[in-house]
Amino acid sequence: MQILAVDGGDRMLAAQCARLREAGHSVTQRSTFETARQILLGDGCHIDLLITNLRLKAYNGLHLVSYTRAFCANTVAIVVDGAADPINELEAHRFGAEYLASPVRSDQLQALVDAAEMKHPISISQPSALQSEHRRSVEPSPLETAETAYGIDTFLESSETACSRQARD
Predict the structure, then answer these.
(1) Exposure string (b/e) for 72-94, b if CB count within 10 Å is 16 or more?
(2) CATH 3.40.50.2300 residue ranges in the chain?
């Protein structure tokens, strides 16, 4: 299973990633939204599971989950929060992600990884067929990215409607 772990620079997920590697998973670790985004858009990149801290400096893990959903709809996501927060948990679930609060126990994370693996059975003998299902062949334009990932299309539509009303009046 291809796992992308984004820890926001605080290395909170480092020990968990080491355990996942020992369990046979391929884990790529990054510390920022921007570097994770590059991996998600990279040609030939295939991510089955995104594990991200909620806090990612200028962004948060939910931004990354939203972005991932826009480009890799089949990628399973887990958001890890520094402390249990029912609002953050609700938001994570709203984006279709699982939610864990620190301290994260290995058995908790492993149970969610196992569940993700059931959704994404990976065949080592035929990875290319599975990868092509998840790969975007062309990087979207920045406007398409913003519209899809952050709901800006709704904002633009309402702004255009307001402007057209003012022009009529």
Answers:
(1) beebbbbbbbeeeeeebbebbee
(2) 2-138
The hierarchical CATH code for the domain 2-138 is: 3.40.50.2300
Average pLDDT over residues 76-81: 94
Which helix (H) or strand (E) element contains residue 4? strand 2-6
pTM of this prediction? 0.69
- 144, two tokens: 């398409």
Percentage of the chain beyond pLDDT 90 is 34
Over its C-alpha atoms, the chain yields an Rg (Å, rounded) of 18
Q: Which of 72, 25, 23, 66 is nearest to 47 (CA)?
A: 72
- Structure confidence by residue, pLDDT tens digits, 59-75: 889 999 998 888 888 88
